[in-house]
Fold:
Amino acid sequence: MQPSTSSEEWERVKATFQKIWGYADFRPPQGEIVRAILAGKDALIVLPTGGGKSICFQLPALLKTGLTLVVSPLVALMENQVQELRDRNLPAALLHSEVPKLQRRQTLDAIAKQTLRLLYLSPETLLSPPVWERLSQPQVKINALILDEAHCLVQWGDTFRPAYRRLGAVRPALLKGKPEGEKIAIAAFTATADPRAQTIIRNTLQLHNPQPFLLSPYRRNLNLKVQVIWTPRGRRQEMLKFIKNKGKQAGLVYVRSRKDSEELAAWFQTLSYQTAAYHAGLSGEERRKIEGDWLSGKTQFVVCTCAFGMGINKPDVRWIVHFQAPCLLSEYIQEVGRGGRDGKPADALTLMSEPSGFLNPEDKQRNQFFSDRAQQQYQQAREVAKKLPPSGEIAAISRQIRGGDIALSLLHSAGRVIWSDPFHYRQIKSSSAQNLNELSKQQQKAQTQMQDYLITRKCRWQFLLEAFGLVREATGLKCGHCDNCNSR
Structure:
């Protein structure tokens, strides 16, 4: 496929699309996104959950010769997408820490032989020496780097998975070893990114004049409700009452910890509900079984952490419960967006302790715990900055200083460190650099925004649209699909 698409070529694109996926034409703006990626342009794509994001990069990858790298945050997400492609006999593979040695070797050989079109891998696997060495070989043609679920770069890149912060150094480093004139496009896909998150994604990935595709997350079939509860027992009882009213309809219960997922799932099982606990501590085999049981209807709902749901396509989810509210609005939008993907009504209930915390302090204590942990990481970054060599190897700093990789990530976020390549850093003095206190305040502000949403009296969809920078769409909105609008 040539960099630009004539009408004749575009008909061939649509014919391939229909042959593989069975659809006669694209949904807006899928076609425009496919055109941009086929043309080798950088792009930033914000499409609501269920908007068909994966097809937008899978189709161009299959139409071109060469390899498209898909950086994905979760093993389950990679496995689901690659299995769907393999079921269609398409040349896709994945690499992560749980892949057996033989399969890993076969995939690395397939990269060298250029028989793959799509390779799914985590940021950490992409930057692992064996994989990086194979991708860096001059004969391995790489067309594009796709960042799937790009909001994870913003949510996790500073203090949880620092490899995300180094992704902007990948393209220039790979191109150094490739034939002259070769290009690698970068496209970032997510369902949620407010203006600040969009800026972080653009700057961190070093996107070149990215073509934006920004769609509203507003879904008129999704009914939002927040309910104040007064006791821990009351929290369980209100959730149970809500689920009982749903009969046998499929749903999801989101919690904030592995412990809560396991305890609640066990409690529901004593009440004869078909459910299971899902979190990142499960083996790949356990996760796949839980997903399969839920998708097939054998399990009515899953009690899960944020590790569940990304990329899993179940259209008939009729309800979502947040047993505890997430920290960030972007997480909330992602999770409620898994309801009603078939366009039919779905209800999303969030439970919160009374705001004062006097009668029921559990939410306040939980939020304080996460806030304190983040502040400890910022303090550690300040200490690391004092003894950091002017330049060096990131892996060496990680070995020598506990949490050194996270400290470097925070310093990069503040503009005080740059990457010479994905494996080396260099300190800089810049007038635009922030201090870590400012960065910490921005993080606290993002968490406060979630609390403001929980207690707002205005239309909840209006609040969300304004928070994500869609002021024009929010103006005058009274959705009729949230508890605040309905109570009027």
Remarks:
- The mean pLDDT is 91.
